[in-house]
Design a protein that fits this description.
In chain A, 33% of the residues lie in helices and 28% in strands. Chain A is α+β, with helices and mostly antiparallel strands and 402 residues long. In chain A, strand 20 and strand 21 form a beta hairpin. In chain A, helix 1 packs parallel to helix 3. Chain B has a two-stranded antiparallel sheet. In chain B, strands 2-3 form a two-stranded antiparallel ribbon. The chains are: A alpha+beta (402), B alpha+beta (61).
């Protein structure tokens, strides 16, 4: 029996659209389904993307997709000491995330992919123990079935269908950061990303100020999902980033007088990726597989890369989508971006052991060049130099070897 | 049993991503709650960035 499509992609984010673009270009019949009314809405992230990441994709961002260029980063220690870090590596773009997601999807449609919005996958269609398609519902009214020999979960954080396919896509509170964000103006930002650290400012997280045009900013605060800093409705203890964000604003002369244009937020994955990304007739890509940078929670670049890698393996499989034929995607991901993600997960675990005194000390000890290495994941040199002057920091080494 | 104050909800679906039984789902731009799946673990309450979810534990029957 002929299937309705060659490939059905669940989710029209950066992972799904990147994969669909490549497959459609090679002549595959690709359908993207998106449960939301409009692609990219609501925005739930910091919207930053490195310039290098776009080069990897052979893409040039048209104006309107990004708000402004990022020149570098200003990192602020708990005691207020600053490091400004500006070079080729730190250049990037502040996206207009909604426009960016729409643009990436349009590129896929131009190559021949089809998109259906307001269409939600509710379950898998199984035949003889094999995945053969999806049960979907349009506008929460019309239910029907769509068949395809390959289903791609590009569902993002929720990953409901991937869970039904047997993947462990549930996040524990420890493995997420919960974030509250404002779009604000006016703030003199110098086109730098500003990051503020400290246990009092943002326990197991940080405050970010991302520059946008017209003195606008995306200001957000993320804290560990295991932090109990707020009383929740009904009296339960929990993470409440908004309390800390409002406190941060009240202590900053310029922000105190700025206006909030938009409130949003989200929960980001900062844990390890899932073990397996594929099974027969099914693949999980992007944030759905928890492929996220564990330090800053950024997932856009990894999602796009994952989409391209999966697409390559799908084309190589020549229509035979057995687990064995799809496993190459797991392999190239783990040997490529997966290595960096694993290193940065270790670094995150080190960082969360540090108190404010440790952080202040490290800021003082690390010169700009070495900070550069830390950010790239080559942190051994910096750690060793810092430890030489402060033996009590040895406790962090236990984390690295555990 | 949880209740959600939808007016302040950011529709980020963070609650859905930590729910171990997938008792929460973003459906038609709104978080739906399936009480029969809920195990009252409170993970959604703990991490909701907007603090709009409340858990009222039900007594043993």
């Amino acid at each position: 029996m002929k299937s309705d499509h060659d490939v059905i992609v669940i989710g029209s984010g950066p992972a799904g659209s990147s994969l669909a673009r490549v497959l459609a270009k090679e002549g595959k019949d690709v359908l993207i389904i998106e449960k939301r009314k409009q692609i990219g809405v609501p925005v739930r992230c910091g919207e930053g993307l490195g310039a290098r990441e776009l080069l990897k994709q052979n893409l040039t961002l048209p104006k309107g997709i990004y708000s402004t260029e990022i020149l570098g980063a200003k990192v602020v220690a708990p005691n207020g000491q600053q490091i400004i870090w500006k070079d080729e590596e730190t250049k990037g773009y502040m996206l207009e995330r909604k426009a960016f997601d729409q643009w990436l999807c349009e590129l896929a449609i131009k190559e021949g992919a089809k998109l259906k919005v307001l269409m939600r996958a509710t379950d898998l269609i199984m035949k003889n123990g094999k995945i053969q398609g999806l049960k979907v519902i349009y506008r929460e009214q019309e239910e029907f079935e769509l068949t395809a020999p390959l289903i791609i979960s590009a569902e993002g954080m929720e990953a409901q269908i991937a869970k039904k396919a047997g993947f462990n896509t549930v996040h524990s509170p420890y493995d997420v950061d919960t974030c509250y964000q404002y779009e604000m103006m006016e703030y003199s930002h110098e086109n730098l990303i500003e990051l503020y650290f400290g246990a009092k400012i943002a326990p197991r997280g940080y405050v970010w100020i991302f520059p946008k045009e017209n003195k606008k900013i995306n200001l957000g605060l993320g804290i560990g999902g295991n932090i109990l800093n707020g009383k929740k409705l009904g009296g339960m203890q929990g993470s409440d980033p908004k309390i800390l964000l409002d406190d941060f604003i009240s202590k900053n002369k310029e922000l105190k007088n700025a206006s909030i244009m938009n409130e949003f937020g989200g929960v980001i994955s900062v844990g390890a990726p899932i073990d397996k990304f594929v099974t027969d007739n099914f693949m999980v890509i992007g944030t759905a597989s928890k492929q996220v940078d564990p330090i800053h929670g950024g997932g856009i670049a990894l999602a796009m890369e994952s989409g391209l890698m999966a697409a390559k393996i799908i084309l190589d499989a020549k229509g035979k989508y057995s687990k064995e034929n799809l496993e190459g995607y797991e392999k190239i991901w783990k040997e490529g971006p997966g290595k960096k993600v694993a290193k940065r997960l270790m670094l995150r675990k080190v960082m969360e052991k540090l108190n404010d005194d440790d952080l202040n000390y490290i800021f003082k000890a690390i010169c700009d060049k070495e900070l550069n290495q830390v950010m790239k994941g080559n942190f051994a040199v910096s750690v060793a130099k810092v430890l030489a002057g402060r033996p009590q920091l040895l406790k962090i080494l236990s984390v690295l070897t555990s | 049993m949880i209740t959600i104050k939808h007016a302040g909800c950011l529709q980020c679906a963070g609650c859905c991503s930590v729910c171990p039984t997938r008792a929460l789902e973003l459906v038609g731009g709104k978080i739906e709650f399936y009480p029969e799946k809920c195990i009252q673990c409170g993970a959604c309450v703990r991490i909701c960035p907007a603090n709009v979810i409340e858990l009222k534990k039900e007594g043993k029957k």
